[in-house]
Amino acid sequence: MQSASDRHEYPAHWEADVVLRDGGTARIRPITVDDADRLVSFYEQVSDESKYYRFFAPYPRLSAKDVHRFTHHDFVDRVGLAATVGGEFIATVRYDRIGPDGTPASAPADEAEVAFLVQDAHQGRGVASALLEHIAAVARERDIRRFAAEVLPANNKMIKVFTDAGYTQKRSFEDGVVRLEFDLEPTDRSLAVQYAREQRAEARSVQRLLVPGSVAVIGVGRTPGGVGRSVLGNIRDAGFTGRLYAVNKAFPEDLKEFDGVPAHRSVRDIDGPVDLAVVAVPAEHVPEVVAECGDHGVQGLVVVSAGYAESGPDGRERQRALVRHARAYGMRIIGPNAFGVINTSASVRLNASLAPQMPRPGRIGLFAQSGAIGIALLSRLHRRGGGVTGVTGVSTFVSSGNRADVSGNDVLQYWYDDPDTDVVLMYLESIGNPRKFTRLARRTAAAKPLVVVQGARHGGAAPQGHAVRATRLPHATVSALLRQAGVIRVDTITELVDAGLLLARQPLPAGPRVAILGNSESLGLLTYDACLSEGLRPLPPLDLTTGASAADFHAALSRALADETCDAVVVTAIPAIGDASTGDAELAQALRSAAERVPGKPVLVVHVELGGLAEALSAAASTAPQASTKAPGTASRAHPFRPLDFLADPQPEQPDTDENAPRLIPAYPAAERAVRALAEAVKYSQWRREAADPGKVPEYEDIDEKGAARLIDGLLARGQGLTLGTDETCDLLGKYGIQVHRALHAPTPDAAADAARTLGYPVALKATAPHLRHRADLGGVRLDLADEEQLRRAYAELTALFGKPEELRPVVQSMAPRGVDTVVRAVIDPAAGAVLSFGLAGAASQLLGDMAHRLIPVTDREATSIVRSIRTAPLLFGWRGSAPVDTPALEELLLRVSRLVDDHPEVVAVTLEPVVVATHGLSVLGASVRLAPPPARDDLGPRTLPAY
């Protein structure tokens, strides 16, 4: 797109879609010579006042010279970016590299002047802030470290854009102009500002989809049972509080109403705004519908139509075109192939989904990528939420289908500060951006529980239709990183619901101590064993016997909750038979009464069902509340032919939307399920306490960051990626205070003897061939060789056992103090980011997969926890009478490796193996480092939507 005289090719990687402050989208891209007409049209729509602020003088129109200047860039010293909607400019930004005297310059000058112009109709949408993030990233890529901007004092909006960005800046006033200078190196404050803006914008974009004032269903067929007509009926029957329209281009021209809803042949024919369009037309007709919606100003789409990426390569390209088309109009998409969205709020009552009835209102946010799993979750929440647990329902529900645009990350942004959602449950078949998901999950989990089950864990590939970044990390590692971020990871949707119901209406436990009481000794013992299996600390079960009354349960529960040695209580109950047995409602009231007196401790119930299978199965088919046939407050005895529902709310039709309502007591049909949910709550509670003080990344005075950077730049000048040699590895690690025991090559016995004399006895002789490296169990290592005679004998033994020296690649190394062999690794994963791993060296740990993982940068608290989190950690702390090793030295090594990788993204892999940790100090006996050019954009880059 540029002329031959330009110095660089068109930088396509600078193109990006962004979400603006109001939830709409815009596309940011470089300005080219082909944009002359767009630039002129854009400038004509800018007010005279805005032009004056840009050029400091009346400037009614652009001259031909201006147009040439503002459209011809070399993409190095002169760069222009435009924000576009519908293909037309709504804002521009430009930088020009300058020298110390303020005149145009080239590299190595590292300062540039920057200027913005935003169309008046789009001011206040956060366009300039988004453009500043992107032009700053471009400038950093072109080795520009500082921006300067001159602004008229009256241009408060633009001054605020610069001052609010969070960069380190200087401000001066001269000749009636405010001059701002700011460094482009991201700071903690600039990143915090960027993430806060990202959260507000993405949350707003989801809010526009979940809280619309008007909805049009496009593709409403006249034949009963069609998808479009079903969705229309579901929205209408749910009592949607806004305006609803039925749209089908096949409607007769004189048709004014369909199924009691205003009818139109096109969205364009609707008199008034349409906030949300539900698209249910065949895939080949969707582009026409998107164009009509975009022209009418529709804010978002829910596309239930199938025939996209899930159907193969042609459908995948159709899906890409759909996303590009919708974003060009500033619209976001849920879908395609989506089940729909639900909002149970009384002020909205939106059921824009294929669910025939609205779920109960409640305080659980539910996200499912799969429609089938979404149905199952809604059904289970109804069955569990309206049965034994009282009324616990859904605040909002999103089923994203192929999640081509709106993903779990976006919905997390919405739920983070949604006052109607207390707990988030997510079923994910893939995680498109694990790095961002982990960041958002950590922030969300600090405010409210986030429970996740991931499907397709062992399939090896993402479901069809899902755009997913490739990752080299095994699922277990990704799972560990999610837990580190505070995510409650469960394996099944049953566990998802079990944990969600507990967290929705019970306080978090202060610790792992569990009291057990009930009217069944056997059930109490099963619960006790389950607690031990889950790592909890149960107190001896209290058996109240089968003749226990409601008063006995009340008294026992009250005592347990008052006991300072107890953090949670599990009540076990079996139904009794006979006229004198305790009534369900009476027992439920007794338990609730006791629990309300001590509201700070969670209470769970394990109950046994004697029957009612048919009733339970029939109830599972509905997602709506069932009418109560029992008078409120009426006591009834336990019946042997129906499930025990003694904790059911006496008025199940009352929504669970009051966050100050009495806490409901969750009940479980098996001790193992109740205890597993409680164990997850205990771990999450501990994470919340630790997250309040995450620690800090320590500074070390002996780290030579600049020296390491120079060394890396010199090494990378040789090629695009390389594994460093022994000397280079030692030099680079040494700059971060990591000393490696040098190993000298010994291709002959004489060379081995010379090496030993250089290092000094005692020495070790090792075979470093790939099949023998780090495999002491195969006999390729000889230790404590005290003299030349022992060394030559060991050399002969190794060559006799394993072959010629050129096959063995033997080395001689000085002996290190005895200790525990460990391994430290760091890797840059394309999806998850920088990850630090630690474990013990050896085949046993490898077979067990006993490695711990943390995201880089690692804090001092995280370094302490990673050492203690592996199952073989007791070997470091004096197991079976052995001497404890120097774990503080090990933690410092982990922190130094973390700093190296965090400071230098070119370091894509580090392995230290073995690291022998002795009682005093440690020895790094083997090390390897791999370098590669850093990516053009990293985590410090600007906000963008996933590329499509």
Strand-helix topology:
Layout: E1 16-19, E2 25-30, H1 36-44, H2 48-55, H3 64-71, E3 78-85, E4 88-98, E5 111-118, H4 127-141, E6 146-151, H5 156-163, E7 169-174, E8 177-183, H6 188-210, E9 214-218, H7 227-237, E10 243-247, E11 257-258, E12 261-264, E13 276-279, H8 286-296, E14 300-303, H9 313-328, E15 332-334, E16 340-343, E17 350-353, E18 361-368, H10 371-385, E19 394-399, H11 408-416, E20 423-428, H12 434-445, E21 450-454, H13 475-484, E22 488-490, H14 493-505, E23 513-518, H15 521-533, E24 537-538, E25 542-543, H16 550-562, E26 568-573, H17 584-597, E27 603-607, H18 613-620, E28 667-668, H19 671-691, H20 705-716, E29 722-723, H21 726-734, E30 743-745, H22 749-759, E31 763-767, E32 781-785, H23 788-802, H24 805-808, E33 810-814, E34 820-829, E35 833-840, H25 843-848, E36 851-855, H26 860-868, H27 887-903, E37 907-917, E38 922-924, E39 927-931
Parallel strand pairs: 5-6, 9-10, 9-13, 10-12, 13-14, 14-15, 18-19, 18-20, 20-21, 21-22, 23-24, 23-25, 23-26, 26-27, 27-28
Antiparallel strand pairs: 1-2, 2-3, 3-4, 4-5, 6-8, 7-8, 11-12, 16-17, 16-19, 29-39, 30-33, 31-32, 31-33, 34-35, 34-37, 35-36, 37-38, 37-39
Helix pairs in contact: 6-11, 8-9, 10-14, 11-12, 12-13, 14-19, 15-19, 16-17, 22-23, 26-27
Short overview:
Helices cover 34% and strands 22% of the residues.
Care to describe what's here?
The chain is an alpha/beta fold and 948 residues long. The protein has an 8-stranded mixed β-sheet with strand order 1-2-3-4-5-6-8-7, with helices on both faces. Helix 15 (521-533) packs parallel to helix 19 (671-691). The radius of gyration is 33 Å and the shape is flat. The two termini are 21 Å apart. The relative contact order is 0.07. Residues 1-6, 386-390 and 610-653 have low confidence and may be disordered.
